[in-house]
Specification:
Keywords: Membrane, Transmembrane, Transmembrane helix. This protein is an alpha+beta fold. The protein is built from six helices and four strands; from the N terminus they run E-E-E-H-H-E-H-H-H-H. Helix 4 crosses helix 6 and helix 5 packs antiparallel against helix 6. 10% of the residues are buried.
Length: 165
């Protein structure tokens, strides 16, 4: 990384994004200004980034490809800008989900479903069957509890609107 370039709208002068460039002047990363440096502490964040990296920074005028499209449409690193932008709650949950097996999102349900078959043991008077029922109930609680809590927490934290964040 050799330079930070703040892209500003040619007509309004508002910052649009930041390009991280290498020694040859090629853009290597693109950060959308709105999601990284806008808001109350945005200018302090920009100054801290420039100071921490210790590379020169400059402003460059950027012409949007169209008023209705995102400003990065047509930029060589448009994919970076899309990935570095805020995402919908469902997409965020999918990215940070702890499950990653072939079963996917229903992985947390497999163990409790099969453990439920042994819950009948709780009604038995025989010690081994009763123990199997107790262990089955514990398995269900200990596997569904964290999965349920994680799902609820992610819904609350990732599904907030930008105004509520």
């Amino acid at each position: 990384m050799a330079q930070l370039v703040r892209l500003v709208d040619a007509s309004t002068g508002e910052p649009l994004g930041v390009e991280v460039r290498d020694a040859e002047g090629e853009a290597r990363a693109l950060l959308p200004w709105r999601f990284w440096f806008a808001g109350p502490g945005g200018s302090d964040g920009w100054a801290a980034l420039v100071a921490a990296l210790g590379v020169p920074s400059s402003d460059e005028k950027y012409r949007r490809s169209g008023p209705a499209q995102p400003w990065w449409q047509g930029h060589a690193l448009a994919g970076d800008a899309r990935r570095m932008s805020a995402m919908e709650g469902k997409a965020a949950r999918k990215q940070v989900g702890w499950y990653g097996s072939v079963v996917g999102a229903n992985e947390a349900m497999i163990l409790p479903v099969f453990s439920a078959l042994l819950l009948v043991g709780l009604l038995s008077e025989e010690a081994p069957m009763f123990a199997a029922g107790v262990l089955s109930a514990l398995t269900i609680l200990l596997s569904l509890g964290p999965a349920t809590a994680g799902a609820l927490i992610s819904r609350v934290s990732y599904d907030r609107t930008p105004a509520a964040a």
